[in-house]
Amino acid sequence: MIQIQGLVKQYGLNLVLRGVDLQVAEGEFVTLVGSNGAGKSTLMRIVATLLQPTSGQVQIGGWQLPKHAAKVRRHIGLVSHQSLLYGDLTAAENLDFFARLYRLDNSSERVMAALKKVGLFARQRDPVSTFSRGMVQRLTIARATLHEPDVLLLDEPYTGLDQDASQLLDDLLRQEHSHGRTILMITHDLTHGLNLCDRTAILNRGKIVHQVNSRDVTASEFLALYTGYTRNQKDKAATP
Amino acid sequence: MSEHTPLTRASESESKVFLTAVWAIVWKDLRIEQHTRQTISVMVMFSVVTVIMFNFALEANLDAARNVATGLLWATILLAGTLGLNRSLAIERENQTIDALLMAPIPRNAIYLGKVISVTLFTLALEVVLILLFIVFFDKPLWRPVVLLVLVLGTIGYVAAGVIVTSMTIQTRSREVLLPVLLLPLSLPLVLPSATAVALYMFPQQPVWGEVQSAVSIIIIYDLLMLTAGFLTYHFVVES
User: Fold this and answer.
1) Exposure string (b/e) for B99-131, b if CB count within 10 Å is 16 or more?
2) Domain ranges of chain B
3) ipTM of the complex model
């Protein structure tokens, strides 16, 4: 579903991505972990059609980016640490607006169903600015999946969530995965990353340096592996 | 991408897609304004204070006040307009909602035109208040059809240029300063004929259409140029 080959992104002299290779099969849930500055968000913005690569290939559903970005957009949804919601609109108005942008049939029914799915039906007429962080993140998932995308992109979705809200987000993501949606998530949260996904990849200094099936490693083994790579990065950065 | 193909309306024409997106953005901006009343109220407050201050400053010489009234009218519209532009475009930076717009399967030009229409509506609402203020304070006959036509056309051109400039400056730290510095000189070819045309109607002896025709023609050409430039460049501005 997602194919990335030799992806490079450069800002001036700063090489952020140095030839990323990653494949995500249809219906697969892949988590990408990496330390700050590893290039995770840049990679996510390229896959989300928000940024153009310097070189390399990115294909989603067989469509090349950025050439066919307009066709791909209908098939992807993004959940990021920013809600991408209007705080001054109500929950229902936000979803209604995105239903209009995606020109969805039966938009009112879909909006209500989406609000029920994330447990916000009773708060549909409240402005999003009055919501807790956990509620905002649930509404963000409703927004990102309103148009039934084939690919769900998650950019640090656990940022700022407490234990209960993280648990609710886990449940929602499991639900989305069980519906056959392809999911690519980037996160700092190794525990959530490993528990939920089929495969985990480590992004270090702009390259995928390790990939592992989540069932094949324990959390402590993966943590040791991850720490080894990130420590190497810090050592190299400290070397004059 | 078969299982989760979005249930959107099939075989829509490009123009229908475009107009639906434009209307969605205008609807959303009007809804936000209906809830918050922040944009129009700030513009009106600024304008009322400006007009009252000038009225007191020029109180000693009513003739002088009447002579500068046209210039004061346009200066107030331009400065209050920058407040409206900044507010309207800043909404899309809060919670990074611009990313959600850019990821939606809609033409970039639709976002531009939607913003132009909503800010034009806010500015026209301000102008209704300004017309009343100028009638009260300066005894100026601003309700004449040609004056109203010039105000509407001038506002469209100013906002068409303003949305492009604001989209560039909104990402900078010094946006409040940069916007007027860039936009006001760009508006000069619009303001000069607009002020000239309105000034001709401020005297008891009314001009014939031929006297204002050239000014109105320049305003229309400016409007078309700015709208065309906006259509051609907006996607570069928001994607860069």
Assistant:
1) bbbbbbbbbbbbbbbbbbbbbbbbbebbbebbb
2) 14-239
3) 0.87
